[in-house]
TrEMBL record:
<feature type="transmembrane region" description="Helical">
    <location>
        <begin position="148"/>
        <end position="166"/>
    </location>
</feature>
<dbReference type="InterPro" id="IPR047218">
    <property type="entry name" value="YocR/YhdH-like"/>
</dbReference>
<keyword id="KW-0812">Transmembrane</keyword>
<feature type="transmembrane region" description="Helical">
    <location>
        <begin position="305"/>
        <end position="333"/>
    </location>
</feature>
<dbReference type="InterPro" id="IPR037272">
    <property type="entry name" value="SNS_sf"/>
</dbReference>
<feature type="transmembrane region" description="Helical">
    <location>
        <begin position="91"/>
        <end position="115"/>
    </location>
</feature>
<keyword id="KW-1133">Transmembrane helix</keyword>
<feature type="transmembrane region" description="Helical">
    <location>
        <begin position="345"/>
        <end position="365"/>
    </location>
</feature>
<dbReference type="GO" id="GO:0016020">
    <property type="term" value="C:membrane"/>
</dbReference>
<feature type="transmembrane region" description="Helical">
    <location>
        <begin position="410"/>
        <end position="434"/>
    </location>
</feature>
<feature type="transmembrane region" description="Helical">
    <location>
        <begin position="45"/>
        <end position="70"/>
    </location>
</feature>
<dbReference type="InterPro" id="IPR000175">
    <property type="entry name" value="Na/ntran_symport"/>
</dbReference>
<feature type="transmembrane region" description="Helical">
    <location>
        <begin position="254"/>
        <end position="278"/>
    </location>
</feature>
<keyword id="KW-0472">Membrane</keyword>
<keyword id="KW-0813">Transport</keyword>
<protein>
    <submittedName>
        <fullName>Neurotransmitter:Na+ symporter, NSS family</fullName>
    </submittedName>
</protein>
<feature type="transmembrane region" description="Helical">
    <location>
        <begin position="377"/>
        <end position="398"/>
    </location>
</feature>
Length: 450
């Protein structure tokens, strides 16, 4: 490796390890929890189609840009963006790109762990026979104190993995858990399609119906695409910095977004047949999988086991994602402070735990403020900045060097997207979306301005 690009940190031990870790990061609660309820709240099939469009047009090019930036600079998101801007003869203040993404990822982590804690609790409830009554899971997730304990437990697991580092922690967990994840996912989906209302679910998800589309549908789909692919949150720049120079970023990116989108669609096929079987409202919102599914599990043969397995699946997905969320901030602090990896992971994880604890006590804070701020403002803003950075700040020739394996067609699409499509589309969505929300007084009220 050239001296200018020398880095002190570790690299992935194989392409398989990188793909498992990156797919593990992308596939998470975003696919199993957020995608179903966003689809339910935004009109089903119309949302699904717009979502797929957003993944291809926005998330894929931003993912390629992030992996390329990280691999080129071999540092955390903040340091990489500063270093690359300076190298390109621009101001080091462009590290704002890394700052916004790192803040977004850290904020997501705070409440992510709360939801993941609930997922863990429900998995335990299932395996312990708690779904025998419709509200049986409340035994495991009833009081705020108990909720806090699960949130704490999940965060500690995340910290333990990250503190063990790239090879001993992140890679090991991803290469073992992700193949297991896919096995359980296929098994549960087949079960659900055979036993649930498959026809209704297929129509709901895939029969074109654009009557429910509004401007808000696009904002929701865009935020969901970034959330689900793990872009705009400093993760993929950080994971890219662990890539060896000869890796093929274009093909890896296509693989990561394909796997992630496939899992979201399969999750829809797993969850909606069950939702429709009992006539639940698909637009039930944030609690869709926590209210609808346990009711169904309580009436199904082997419902406890199936329910326990479903939430175990979501737990695996959540853990391989939360470690990537924490890793992105840990990588930055580790570069700049002398605490060492383990201490850094405990400090930052502890801080995220405390902010998340606020969300346990206030659903408005969790689902409203944090989710809207991170999912619909910071992530789109981060994606916008990454695109401007890769399309306008960094010379095209430099991006081409990092994406040298990409076919001319893929590179041309990439560069056009980061230069024009992503900035223009997100720029207008952000301005209109923010304007809408402030006018409606919702966000204004949440941040104390309304
Ligand atoms: N992509 C993961 C998910 O969909 O759950 C985790 C994640 C990463 C969520 C980055 C949000 C985010 F900004």
């Amino acid at each position: 490796m050239a001296a200018a690009l020398a880095s002190t940190h570790a690299h992935w031990s194989s392409r398989f390890a990188f793909i498992m870790a990156a797919v593990g990061s992308a596939v998470g609660l975003g696919n199993l929890w957020r995608f179903p309820f966003m689809t339910g709240q935004n009109g089903g099939s119309a949302f699904v189609l717009i979502y797929i469009g957003c993944v291809l047009l926005f998330a894929l090019p931003v993912l390629m840009a992030e992996l390329a930036i990280g691999r080129h600079a071999q540092q955390s998101a903040i340091t990489s963006t500063r270093k690359m801007a300076i190298e390109a003869g621009k101001s080091g203040k462009w590290s704002i790109v890394g700052w916004v993404c790192t803040a977004a990822g850290f904020l997501v982590l705070t409440t992510y762990s709360v939801i993941a804690g609930q997922v863990m609790a429900f998995s335990a409830a299932g395996f312990a026979g708690g779904f025998a009554q419709p509200d049986g899971a409340t035994m495991f997730y009833g009081t705020d104190g108990v909720k806090m304990l699960w949130h704490f437990g999940f965060m500690v697991l995340t910290i333990l993995v990250v503190s063990r580092g790239l090879k001993g922690g992140i890679e090991r967990v991803a290469t073992i858990l992700m193949p297991l994840f896919f096995l359980v996912l296929i098994g549960l989906t087949v079960y659900s399609l055979i036993n649930g209302a498959a026809g209704a679910a297929l129509t709901y998800l895939f029969a074109p119906d654009f009557s429910a589309v509004t401007g808000q549908t696009f904002i929701a789909a865009l935020g969901q695409a970034f959330f689900s692919v793990s872009v705009a949150s400093a993760i993929m720049i950080t994971y890219g910095s662990y890539l060896p120079r000869d890796s093929n970023i274009g093909s890896s990116s296509v693989l990561i977004v394909s796997a992630d989108t496939l899992v979201a669609l399969i999750a829809g096929l797993m969850i909606f047949p069950i939702v429709f079987m009992v006539g639940m409202d698909p637009a039930a919102g944030l609690g869709l999988i926590f209210t609808a599914l346990p009711q169904v599990f309580s009436t199904m043969p082997a419902g406890n086991f199936i329910g326990g397995a479903f939430f175990a699946l979501a737990f695996i997905a959540a853990l391989t994602s939360s470690i990537s969320l924490l890793e992105a901030t840990v990588a930055f602090v580790e570069e700049n402070a002398s605490f060492g990896r383990s201490m850094t992971a405990w400090l930052l994880g502890g801080f995220a735990f405390m902010i998340g604890a606020g969300a346990v006590y206030s659903e408005a804070f969790a689902g409203g403020f944090v989710d809207v701020l991170s999912g619909q403002i910071l992530l789109p803003l981060g994606g916008f900045l990454v695109a401007v950075f890769a399309g306008w700040v960094i010379p095209k020739s430099l991006m081409r060097t990092e994406l040298s394996h990409a076919s001319p067609g893929l590179f041309a699409f990439f560069h056009f997207a980061v230069r024009y499509i992503v900035p223009v589309a997100i720029g207008s969505i952000l301005v209109l979306g923010l304007d809408d929300r402030f006018n409606a007084g919702r966000l204004g009220a949440m941040v104390g301005l309304g």
